[in-house]
Each structure stands twice: as C-alpha cells, then as structure tokens.
Amino acid sequence: VGSNYPFAEVSNLFKNVRKFIQIDIDPTKLGKRHNADVAILGDAGDALRAITEDVDEKEESGWWRANLANIANWNAYVHKLEKKRDGELQLYQVYDAINEHADEDAIFSVDVGDVTQTSIRHLHMNPKQMWRTSSLFATMGIGIPGALTAKVDFPDRQVWNLAGDGGFNMVMQDLATEVQYHLPIINVVFANKQYGFIKDEQEDTNLGFLGVQFMDIDYAKLAESMGAVGYTITTIAEVQDVFEKAMQDIAAGRTVLIDAKISGDRPLPAEMLELDPRISTPEQITEFRRRYEAEDLQPLSYYLAQEGLDSTVSRIEQGGF
Q1: How many CB atoms are located within 10 Å of the residue 91 CB?
Q2: For residue 303, which of 55, 66, 132, 180 is within the disulfide window of CB 3.0 to 4.6 Å?
Q3: 89-261 has CATH 3.40.50.970 classification
Q4: What does CATH list as the number for 63-73+269-321?
Q5: What does the pLDDT look like over 63-76, one tens digit per residue?
C-alpha cells in the first residue's frame, strides 16, 4: 500500500506471498517489484476504506487474544525501560524525552544501525508525524541529509535527526550546513563509541570483535564550533533539563545538537528470544532476562498456552529459530 518496496528483490520480501494486491497513485509502480493479482490505481486511504467496507469482520479467536496479550506485554517492557530513572544513562530514557518533546506533527530522520530498530520500538508516533530512513543497504549517515531535506520541505514543522555516533561521524560536517541556512533542527547523537549494530552481529557470528569500537568525541563542542547550540548528557537526571533548554533554542531558531553519552548495552535481540523453556535451558533464560532487563517479558507461546493453543517454534540445528 503506497510503497514501492525498492529492496524487495534483494531481501526476497514477498517469497511467501500467495496473493498480491497493490495500491499506488503512481501507475509505474504497480507490478514493478512483484506480479500483482490486483492492481489498484488510486489514493491509499480511499482504497483501503472502500475495501474495508466490503470485508466481513472475523470472529475473535484464541490466536487473536494471545497476540493482543503478547503486544501488551512487549509494550509494558518497552515503557519500563523508557521510564527507568536509576543506573547509567541508556538510550531508552533519551527516547522517553524525545517522545515527550516531539510536536504532534514532528518529522524524524532516522539514521541506520541500532538507532533504526530502537526508533521502531521507542518512538511512539501518531498518524500526523512522519519518519524516514534508508534500510537494508546500511546507508550510514543518512540522518542529517534527511533532516535537512525535511526542514527545507516543511519549514514550519519540528524536525529531528536521530543518529548513532558511528553514522553521525560520517556526515557531521553538514551540521554547519544546518547552521548556514538557519535550519532549527534537533540533532540527537546516541554516543556509545561503537558501531553497535555491527558489534551485535559480530557477537552472534564471530569469536571476537573487529573494527567496531572507536574514540569518543565531544559533539557538543563540535556543534558550538559550527555555530550550533551543543548539549551533553551523561546521566538520566540531566535529560529533562537539557531537552527543555533545547526546545527553547529551537523556538529561537537555533540549530541544536544533543550529545547523549549512552551505555553500550545491546538492545534486546527480538529475533532470538531465549525465553521459551522448550528451546532454551533455565540458565539461558535467566541470563537473557538479566542482561536485557526482561524479567516480565514472556514468549508468545506463553499466551498461546493460556488460550489452549500450541506453538510450533523450535530451535534448528544451526542455532537459530
């Protein structure tokens, strides 16, 4: 619906699709990535509403209820991390402040890496807000150019650039471009001195880490040298005050950078939830819960069992699921 899915062939996205319905306002996109059984040329919202009017609602089932409970359990886990106010600064508390201070129609330009998956989890967006990223091809450094374009195209809307320090390091010189053209953009750098997403992959596939850690940079001073306003956050207690000051600077037309010195904690790998006793040992489950602060997180099989249903999940020989 309304998407060209430019990486569909590379990711084999539609390999399990039996019937393909595509809706787009651009006729050249219809059937471009996959043979369309039904191609609808038109507005996505109008088309979906018309389809919905002719679709019978399915009766509630145990499968449906189990998934609703699973989603509620996940959301509770996400919010628990965001509302933590003790221990070292993590990216979760920074996202909590972003959600609190984001305008109703804010635009988020999201860099790639850990910040992509954590933005999906921790940006609690509404239909009036917009976000963009460049997935799959590891287009590091996409945050600033996306924010620049967004602010030029939508000068009256609040614009955020969310980036890890790895991606930001690749294009940080264009902070000067934001300043030169008087673009009040909020740049948040999640700085943990590592290519976090690549390090996570190496943890799962390598015997050690290679080329994923680098030196720290004072991004606040860097911002100031380019004429922007720079702030540094090192503790949870500093988050609220810094974001309130940043909002005042943005209202005054200044470009802002917030250097959030977060922990190196790995975000929970949702593709390898070692929480099901049928596929993980008690020791593995205990360690997984401890590492990812997931004491209350349950696998979907738990909620299926409550509905009298069974899960077919199993660990394959290669070690995946």
Answers
A1: 26
A2: 66
A3: yes
A4: 1.10.10.940
A5: 999 999 999 999 99
